[in-house]
Amino acid sequence: xxxxxxxxxxxxxxxxxxxxxxxxxxxxxxxxxxxxxxxxxxxxxxxxxxxxxxxxxxxxxxxxxxxxxxxxxxxxxxxxxxxxxxxxxxxxxxxxxxxxxxxxxxxxxxxxxxxxxxxxxxxxxxxxxxxxxxxxxxxxxxxxxxxxxxxxxxxxxxxxxxxxxxxxxxxxxxxxxxxxxxxxxxxxxxxxxxxxxxxxxxxxxxxxxxxxxxxxxxxxxxxxxxxxxxxxxxxxxxxxxxxxxxxxxxxxxxxxxxxxxxxxxxxxxxxxxxxxxxxxxxxxxxxxxxxxxxxxxxxxxxxxxxxxxxxxxxxxxxxxxxxxxxxxxxxxxxxxxxxxxxxxxxxxxxxxxxxxxxxxxxxxxxxxxxxxxxxxxxxxxxxxxxxxxxxxxxxxxxxxxxxxxxxxxxxxxxxxxxxxxxxxxxxxxxxxxxxxxxxxxxxxxx
Length: 446
Ligand code: NAP
Fold this sequence. Notes:
Layout: H1 4-16, H2 21-38, H3 42-46, H4 49-54, E1 58-67, E2 73-84, E3 90-96, H5 102-118, E4 125-130, H6 139-153, E5 162-165, H7 172-186, H8 207-225, E6 234-237, H9 242-253, E7 257-258, E8 260-263, E9 266-270, H10 276-285, H11 291-295, E10 300-304, E11 315-317, H12 327-335, E12 340-342, H13 351-359, E13 363-365, H14 367-370, H15 373-386, H16 393-417, H17 424-443
Parallel strand pairs: 3-4, 3-5, 6-7, 6-11, 11-12, 12-13
Antiparallel strand pairs: 1-2, 2-4, 8-9, 9-10
């Protein structure tokens, strides 16, 4: 139950944004944490901060026409939600997936505001994407789509305005096509306009690894806070994309045994530990399916459909997509003795699953804290672009690690300060919100 003021605001937002369940879910999760702030900060209410934060500063929806390999005209829908620029230029990825709609982009943009605030770096929140599905498309089709998408998007972005990056379905190939078209249309080599770039043309070392590494480092910090470590522990990872692959790599470096990976067709269990090289060959080079992994590895079994969370583990790293871990999965994980859950993906755990973890004393790292390493390293890429510099892997990874350790500490200290010790959800929401709110107050009503 929310208090009456928050409930009233929440009801208005639901009425103004019908049919957007993921957006409502993301708002509700933050609203639940804000009650602890109300008494200490009446100025937030007086200045209408929550009401203003619920409304994106700008929402852009556009047609993306392109021609497929058969010569047929296709039309997709493009989105960019420039959500909040209190702390810096809008910053957040582009998602290309058939499920993308305005509500999904708004949920991701809303989360991004607080995530970016938690990094301590000067970046606002935004998100974008399209219902274009890159699966099964040729490189030439992906290129034509990206060029058409950027033909509209370029009017709205810039290193001081809005800086997109990758997300589901947008990796190095897509960023290359998008940057190439931006450069062509503007006649400017503005490296800081996109992050996740190739290393030869303005990209940063560690950006590719950053989200997966960061979510695992966050899990490691949560384990340490309870006197544990990854050493010898079995770990379940979902997904087999950018975040999942590098989460698996970091788990292995920290002494854990990552035993699963998945995609939308099912999951593999490998009791000897996921062979990272084989997984990368199949997913990054061949763009194959996760079942191919089991076909080529004796110790692995492929399970079609089913839930990757049925596999007994001590740590769970959901790294695929929103709402992929529900209450039943949480009950199974708790029954199997899970100690920590760190969200590599955005909002992968349903609200019921999160409640069950918190009630059972499982350390739960919400995505806006746990997966902030990706956007933090994007901001480090922007720093390198601005100074026309390129940092070493070791230096950049050290910066990432420090940022993740700092986010973890901030969440714990804030939760303690507001009377909810050990509650990373409250810690992340309150700490992320306060900085944004204070900047908005400083700027006046705009
Ligand atoms: P990605 O490289 O495209 O990989 C996504 C993975 O998730 C794929 O294995 C995909 O399988 C799987 N997946 C997607 N939708 C699914 C569904 N409905 N059911 C089951 N599996 C599904 O994307 P990514 O960059 O790793 O992003 C994964 C998550 O992390 C997203 O929530 C994203 O918002 C979040 N995130 C990413 C970054 C980043 O830096 N990339 C930063 C912060 C947060 P299929 O190939 O079968 O679809």
